[in-house]
Amino acid sequence: MPSNRFVFGSMLAATCVIVGCQDQTIVPATAPSTSRFAPSNQAALSQSPLQALPSRSVLSVPSSVVAPSRVFADHGGRIINPNDYVCTSGSPVTDYLYAELGNTLATEPTLFFAMYNRFADYIPTYEALYFQSTATPQYFGYNGEFTQLMLKTEKDIKRFWDIPNADIQLLAMHGTVLTDTARTARTYRLLGFPDAVASAYAAVDRAATLASTTMHGGNFGFWTFNAFSFSTPGHNPSDRIVMGDGILEAYSAIGFGDVAPQAIFAHEYAHQVQFENGYDQDLDPSVSAPEQTRYAELMADAMSAYFLTHSRGLALNQKRVAEFLQVFFQIGDCAFTDPGHHGTPNQRLKAATFGFDVAAQAQKQGHILTSAEFHALFVAEFPILIAPDAP
Fold first, then answer.
1. Scanning 75, 269, 293, 313, which has its CA 20 to 30 A from the CA of 150?
2. Is 105 helix (H, G, I), strand (E, B) or coil?
3. Where are the domains of the chain?
4. C-beta atoms surrounding 48 within 10 Å
5. CA–centroid distance for 25 within its chain
6. Are 37 and 116 in contact (CB under 8 A)?
């Protein structure tokens, strides 16, 4: 079976909302796991909701569904020294997500955990990834408010980067799928649950979603607060970028609806450039998983900044893009030993600034750099981007 390459985007490390790439056998339960979570202090939940949620070790995705990428395979090599770097976490967008989730946990814990204990938070991701395609009309945002912007950005970025792109599909992830028992049950079966369990879980998800006054029929940020790139060579379609409603709506709510969709998509598309050209495998396999991922993510940050501000890209205002990226990069990623480590906020801003600068220089020369040319510049700059910055 061709190996899959899976790069989760914006909020993986911070929220633990989405399952990581695993290669294990699933052993589904016939009833909700009582060990997954038992709420004990609702006041504490409303203040720190994500800390109250369990790890994702309870459910492992079958190897037939997702095989891990080299980027996420820990080879046991060097480990990033956290003492070398300044790193702080916290962001207005996580505050927004926490407030929404905390409200539900405080007012409707029974409904939420009826779904969460049945892994409902897996369903929108895998339903979009494995059952959606551009053959079905796609819309972006709870009410489709980002659809035209996303489609225009897709057209512009495919014109900009010099890689084959006919098989790269832009897809949407919607929490409202949880009200559709047929689609939800199908996705549970994909994840390895027996037919009877899949159908029972899907019925609970629908009932709880419709009964809730805070989850708005599935338009609930927790279910879809992510964006990611996926590549499966040899399959058709082989390459997909999935954009979650939750992350688009959250950034819009804090005032970045004019730049966040383009910037997040540009970052995910940069991963497709890496997949196509093999840049996600630049580093020696002896390098640790956190370093592998940091390298790929900082390159994607730089590539996206280059496209967003280049006069022949989106030509967005650099100051405005930088304002968004500062908030985007503040999503606390100080987990230096985590295979999903994206780099510190300072490193990510340095990578974006590098992309801005390269765009400004390229504009003076009147052309768009090839992906190979940009890659060579990034490789030369990378040691500077990750140089220690702690006092």
1. 293
2. helix
3. 5-29+39-385
4. 10
5. 24
6. yes
Count the neighbouring beta carbons within 10 Å of the beta carbon of residue 32. 18
Give me the residue label for tokens 């369903």: 123
How many whole angstroms separate alpha carbon 7 and alpha carbon 180?
A: 27
* Averaged pLDDT, 268-297: 86
Beta-carbon contacts of 372 under 8 Å, excluding residues fewer than 6 positions away, are 277
What's the predicted TM-score (pTM) here? Answer: 0.83
Distance CA 294, CA 329 (A): 13
What is the chain's mean pLDDT, rounded? 78
> What phi and psi, each to the nearest 5 degrees, are found at residue 50?
-70, -30
Report how far residue 122's alpha carbon sits from residue 224's, in angstroms, rounded to the nearest whole number: 9
Q: Which of 119, 115, 218 is nearest to 173 (CA)?
A: 218
Average pLDDT over residues 362-391: 85
35-54 pLDDT per residue, tens: 333 333 333 333 455 555 55
- The total number of residues shown for the chain amounts to 391
Instruction: Report the side by side order of strands in the sheet with 239-244.
Output: 5-8, 227-231, 239-244, 168-173
Intra-chain end-to-end CA distance of the chain, in Å: 48
Cα torsion 308, 311, 312, 317 to 10°: value is: 30
Q: How far apart are CA 350 and CA 384, in angstroms?
A: 9
**Closest residue by Cα to residue 245 from 176, 192, 299, 182:** 176
Return the H-helix or E-strand segment holding 169: strand 168-173
How many Å apart are CA 391 and CA 184, to the nearest integer? 51
Q: How many Å apart are CA 374 and CA 351, to the nearest integer? A: 12
